[in-house]
Structure formats: C-alpha cells, structure tokens
Amino acid sequence: MNDTQRQRFDRIFDFLDTDGSGAIGREDFEALAQHILAATGTAPNSPKARALHDAYRKGWEALSDAADLDGDGRVTRQEFLSRIADPDEGEHSVRRAIDVVGQAEFQAIDADDDGTISHDELQRVLVVRGASGQQAATAFHGLDTDGDGYISLNEYRRAWESFYRADAQDTHGESLQAIFA
C-alpha cells in the first residue's frame, strides 16, 4: 500500500465510522444510508429507500465477512487496512462492499431516476455531508469525465476505482475527496 492509498483508505474508514468509535459496525452503515436518504429527500418507505438500505446491509455483510478478522461484529481500522488492499474481487471482498454501496448510493443520489447524477443532485448530498459548494462543484466536474453535464454510473464507478487503486500521480480519484468532507 502506498502513502496515497493509505491516506485515502484512512479517509474511507473515518467516513464509514460515522459514530467515531474507532470501529465500523452495522449501525454505521445504517446511519450512512439514513444520511443519504435525508439529503436526497427520499421517502423512508419508498422502493428506492428500501433498495438503499438493502445495498448498505449487503455492503456491511461483505465488509464484515472480509475484514472482521476477530469475529466481534466490528471492523477496526487495523482490520480494515489489512484487508482493503487485498486484490480479491470476490463476493465477500472489501472492494465488493464498496462497489455495492457505491451503486446504491449513485441510484439514491439520482433523485429524478434518469440514470445520471446532475450537478444539483450531487451538490445537495455533498453539502449535507459537510462539503462546501466549491468542493461539490469541483467533485462534479472531476466526476463528469465526458463533460456532458451529468455523471453516469460508469463515470462514478471509474472514479471510485481510481480512488481505490490510487498512486501518487492519480488525479481522477481526487474528485471523490468532497465525499469525505
């Protein structure tokens, strides 16, 4: 793991550890889903809300299966960092957990269900998470790699993959920094 990856993985861990307890648990994933639903104004009992909660549950299960090395129902920073760089792409890998959650998050942010994320849709979520309007705009323009004014699921996924496998020269993954504001 290089220094850039370590810094990014630490930021991911801190983001996932919503209560700041030093370990990630199921309740952290539930809180993340609730934050997105609140930021997007999604009705709590809607099909989109149920899908998001289901994806976050699956994401937690994949993370727990891959990284809860002592079986205590919590993933510590040490456990997380020891497993996140694992090249395993299987059903119960940390990468799989991030992908499952990322896809559901994309769909939740896409408030009008047109299959893309607009600038306003992304800004609404990032500002609620603590990013400035400028950080949200920078993130949007970095994620919109084809410059069509919208972020596709493929662009979102490519940015996450770039962020995940970062090297010191990487710039595409930097677009996700506002997510962890």
From TrEMBL:
GO molecular function, one term: calcium ion binding
Transmembrane feature ranges: none
Domain EF-hand stretches: 4-39, 131-166
Any matching Pfam family: EF-hand_7
Domain of life: Bacteria
Name recorded for this polypeptide: Ca2+-binding EF-hand superfamily protein
Organism in which the protein naturally occurs: Actinocorallia herbida
Origin organism lineage: Bacteria, Bacillati, Actinomycetota, Actinomycetes, Streptosporangiales
